[in-house]
Write a structure and sequence with these properties.
The protein is of the alpha/beta class. The chain folds into 2 domains: about 1-45, no CATH class; about 55-155, Vaccinia Virus protein VP39 (Rossmann fold, 3-Layer(aba) Sandwich), CATH 3.40.50.150. The chain has 6 helices and 8 strands. It has helices spanning about 1-5, 20-30, 50-55, 70-85, 105-120, 125-135, and strands at about 15, 40, 55-65, 85-95, 95-100, 125, 140-145, 150-155. The strands form 3 sheets. A 4-stranded mixed β-sheet has the order 3-4-8-7. Strands 1-2 form a two-stranded parallel ribbon. A two-stranded parallel ribbon has the order 5-6. Helix 4 (about 70-85) packs across helix 6. The chain starts with a helix and ends with a strand.
């Protein structure tokens, strides 16, 4: 809702794999009353092939996902997001990351440990490894932005 309100010239297509979360997204969108938010769609961002199905996107925004899925699924998310972009399109990945392999705050160490305790295959991904995977997917890195709560915004684009 925040992005749609701040960027009214863009149409926003939310997605989620979970029906209850899609219903919640749609309820918030109805309450916001913004004309540039579409109904949430069922999309498993870690499923191979979705990028071709959604080809031609000017922006793909991934928020707080990579640390909640295994590395191979995260690799698929990045590759498919890159495939979905039109030439000149941007991929923005937001969330917590290890910085050059290190966790940099007590809060990050505690959260990453809790994630890995619940599932050893998940947890914070490394910022440099993630940037490398974006490059491997044919993208060029445009920016790495320090965000609130020790998060990063990783911005890449598909060259024309």
């Amino acid at each position: 809702m925040h992005f749609a309100a701040r960027l009214p010239g863009l149409d926003w297509q939310p997605s989620d794999i979970d029906p209850a979360r899609r219903a919640s997204i749609d309820a918030h969108a109805r309450t916001a009353g913004l004309p540039n938010i579409r109904a949430a769609v069922d999309l498993d961002a870690a499923r191979p092939g979705w990028g071709a199905e959604w080809a031609g996107q000017s922006l793909v925004l991934v928020v707080n996902l990579l640390h909640l899925i295994p590395q191979d699924a995260a690799d698929t998310v990045l590759a498919e997001a890159a495939a979905a972009l039109s030439p000149g399109g941007r991929l923005v990945v937001y969330g917590p990351f290890r910085r050059a392999g290190e966790l940099t705050s007590d809060g990050d160490r505690a959260f990453d440990a809790a994630l890995r305790e619940s599932d050893p295959a998940i947890g914070y991904k490394d910022d440099f490894d993630t940037l490398d995977r974006m490059l491997d997917a044919g993208l060029e890195i445009r920016d790495v932005i320090e965000m609130p709560a020790n998060n990063l915004g990783l911005v890449a684009w598909r060259p024309p």
